[in-house]
Amino acid sequence: MSIDDRKFQVFSKQHLEILPQLQKLTPDHRLAMRAVAEVLPFRVNNYVLEELIDWDNVPNDPVFQLTFPQPGMLAREDFGLLCGMLKRNAPAAELAAEVKRIRYSLNPHPAGQKSLNVPHENGQPLAGMQHKYRETVLFFPMAGQTCHAYCTYCFRWPQFVGLDDMKFASKEAAGLVEYLRAHKEVTSVLITGGDPMIMRTQLLRQYVEPLLGPGLEHVASIRFGTKAPAYWPYRFTHGEDADDLMRLIGEIRAAGKDAAIMAHFSVLRELQTDVAQAAVKRLVSAGATVRTQAPLIRHVNDNADNWAQMWRKQVSLGAIPYYMFIERDTGARGYFEVPLWRAYMIFTEAYRQVTGLARTVRGPSMSCTPGKVLISGVVEVKGEKAFVLKMLQGRDPAWVNQVFFAKYDQRATWMDQLKPAFGEREFFFEEGMRQMLESGEARVWLPTEVDALEETWRMESVEPDHEHDRKLDQ
Ligand SMILES: *Cc1c(COP(=O)(O)O)cnc(C)c1O
User: Rounded to whole angstroms, what are the CA distances from 204 to 139, 180, 249, 275?
Assistant: First the structure.
């Protein structure tokens, strides 16, 4: 088939028994995949099936691991239970109850996603927004809350299985515009999901164009978090809709703003097809900056060469390596997690292989409740081994770029398992974090307008100091 007439076809749980590519697996293996797909979301498309997965290398193929449910993703007991239920055709209600129990055991809402990050106005949560770091607001358009294919490790998995209702997504940009007008400290809007590139450009435009108007000059960049360049690159290369997207990027640029595609690339294969390369190049030609990021995932991309090759390829296509993340503490984390020391080793080994042009990448980084924490190194000081950590982003802007230390721990895979090193009782941000949790207010900065107001108020309320003035007159 020529790539020009490829139509988007999507496959999910009910196709696991009938996909021709899966027929070479044993019936038990297919049953195992169905059992996992009862709990975790599964969705692939024809491009992922035909171009990205090497079926001679299944089940080890990294894209197969990235997209298809794997037996090891559930706890052994839960997995055995579900397989048994499927085998004996257990009643739907009985199955649903177990599935629900297992889903809630998988820490569906890590890092204060739903409580601390959502801004409020008059006590009401603002639909479709998260504002965790002063400079950047995340926006979730309603129609952008799915993807061209699902990553098995996705931290947003609860919304794809209906565990989260979509109340937190927004149907229109009006609320966002109003919020941004009142928050001059925000310089960047990150449109995310799901994948906003699942939307047709006409719809995407309804969210983007209001951000280009007057009163929002302080918003210097509009970012799009997307895996479409990896999972459905035709979105950027073929058809009228792709042309229209390039025009929209042109409009963002003409309004004096950066149009940034935050492209999620996990494995080299995703960058090797002609159409994926054409997609990145076309975005760059249209005036977008393409920045790349992905989490480090066992079974998928836990080797240094993959990262070094990806970063080199990205730079050669005009993209800018941005973040390597640590897999979050949710979902099938037991299957995917990489110990922090190993993540640091893999990053370092990859980083050493590339020139400074690709060393724009930062990592490995953990997006946890207080902020983005970089594993910056491992040191030994007077016999005590420690991780050197650095806050890349913080809920409190005063935390940013601070270095701190945690006891070296070979088993640790996430921040909550780390303890302060060198006799410290707690990490430097913990006191502030407690205050935020107690007050329920995670925004410790003041919008610029409020700062200005406060200044005026201070001047008005200062009592004239006649005594002082008299002294000056003498
Ligand atoms: C990473 C992230 C951002 C953006 O941070 P940058 O360092 O500016 O890329 C914004 N909000 C949240 C919640 C994030 O996790």
Answer: 12, 18, 11, 22
What gap in Å lies between CA 182 and CA 449, rounded to an integer? 7
pLDDT of residue 153: 87
Q: Return the pLDDT at 162.
A: 80
Tell me, using a 6 A CB cutoff, whether residue 70 lines ligand 1.
Answer: no
Q: Name the residue at shortest CA distance from atom 15 of ligand 1.
A: 367
CATH number at residue 254: 3.20.20.70
Domain boundary among 77, 104, 131: 104
Pocket test for ligand 1, best of 138, 390, 393, 443 (most atoms within 8 A of CB): 393
Q: How far is the CA of 274 from the centre of ligand 1 (A)?
A: 30
Question: Do 237 and 280 reside in the same domain of the chain?
Answer: yes
Residue 367 Cα: closest atom of ligand 1:
15
3-state helix, strand, coil in the chain (%, to 5): 45, 20, 35
Residues 45 and 80 in one domain: yes
- Whether 293 lines ligand 1, by a CB cut-off of 6 Å, is no
Domain shared by 216 and 180, yes or no: yes
Place of tokens 């309804």: 206
Same domain as 259, residue 182: yes
Domain range enclosing 58: 10-104
Give per-residue pLDDT as tens, 61-108: 999 999 999 989 999 999 999 999 999 999 999 999 999 999 999 888
Are 249 and 306 contained in the same domain? yes
Residues 314, 196 share a domain? yes
455-467 per-position pLDDT tens digit: 444 445 556 677 7
CA distance 83 to 138: 39
